[in-house]
Write a structure and sequence with these properties.
By secondary structure, the chain is an alpha+beta fold. The protein has two domains: about 100 residues, no CATH class; about 60 residues, no CATH class. It has eight helices and four strands. It has a two-stranded antiparallel sheet with strand order 1-2. It has a two-stranded antiparallel sheet with strand order 3-4. β1 and β2 form a beta hairpin. The longest helix has 15 residues. The radius of gyration is 18 Å and the shape is elongated. About 25% of the residues are buried.
């Protein structure tokens, strides 16, 4: 077995690391993790793709200024903080942030704002809400796991409503 394979950790294959490697030049001056769950990974991938297209046309000076500061969830929506960029990037970011209010942060299914408790709201599907609230109230708040994402994709492909499973 090669040394590279032996030294590879499972974390290297997380959806976050995959996106960071895919768009490595966008992350060269910035963060190396995101404070969001996997349900928004496609939304973030689409946003980063659009930003990459703009970044490729930047001057060297503009590339030096560019930096992703933080990617997180706040008040149920995506927040993407950066320095540099242009009007197109600003519009791409605003579009993605607005879309996040209709996508479950845990499952990637269609979602809506859900009040978790008196001070916390998230964008969740019915399935995501059930999973999140169960984990939250058990004191085991966890990020979305790959099996949950796989289940949500199977439900979408089979055109089964998540509400049917929750009954």
């Amino acid at each position: 077995m090669s040394k590279n394979i032996e030294s590879t950790k499972m974390e290297d294959f997380s959806w976050q690391n995959i996106l960071i490697k895919k768009y490595n030049n966008l992350f060269r001056n910035g963060i190396n993790f995101f404070e969001i769950d996997e349900g928004w990974s496609s939304l973030l991938d689409d946003l980063l793709y659009k930003i990459q297209e703009e970044y490729n046309n930047f001057t060297e000076e503009e590339k030096e200024i560019w930096s992703i500061q933080q990617i997180k969830e706040k008040f149920g929506g995506l927040r993407f903080y950066y320095t540099g960029g242009n009007d197109n990037i600003h519009n791409f970011v605003k579009e993605a942030e607005l879309k996040s209010f209709k996508i479950c942060e845990l499952t990637g299914l269609p979602g809506k704002l859900v009040k978790i408790n008196s001070f916390w709201i998230k964008t969740l599907s019915p399935l995501g809400e059930k999973v999140y609230k169960d984990k939250f109230f058990l004191g085991k708040l966890l990020s979305a796991s790959s099996p949950l994402i796989a289940l949500s994709k199977k439900l979408t492909e089979a055109e089964i409503e998540p509400n049917e499973i929750l009954k």
